[in-house]
Design brief:
The protein has 89 residues and is α+β, with helices and mostly antiparallel strands. It is built from three helices and five strands, in the order βββαααββ. The protein has a three-stranded antiparallel sheet with strand order 1-2-3. Helix 2 crosses helix 3. The longest helix is centred in the middle third of the chain and has 15 residues. The chain is globular, with a radius of gyration of 13 Å. It comes from Macrococcoides goetzii. This is Transposase.
């Protein structure tokens, strides 16, 4: 897994807490853009999969904390609370 750059050659690598960089094309993205790209990739490959914090954390190879992912999802996606089975759309 991991988030592939828009150039489709390499995955983003973590440069700092808020920056990720593609080693092939040298494009840098911030944390929010990285999360958005990860979510787009998940929806493209698994369109019926429920979006959860753990799924995004696993997809991003634990480069981003659960709290940051949860904050991003709460801000940009609709939450469906169902106890431990909470998910986002």
């Amino acid at each position: 897994m991991g988030v592939v750059c828009h150039c489709h050659v390499a995955k983003y690598e973590k440069v700092s807490n808020r920056k990720f960089k593609c080693l092939a094309c040298k494009k840098e993205v911030n944390c929010n853009d990285y999360l958005q790209k990860a979510i787009e990739d998940i929806h493209l490959i698994y369109p019926m999969e429920r979006l959860t914090v753990n799924l995004v954390k696993k997809w991003t190879e634990n480069h981003i904390s659960s709290e940051k992912i949860r904050t991003y999802l709460n801000t940009h996606h609709k939450i469906f609370k169902n106890g431990p089975l909470t998910f986002y759309r």
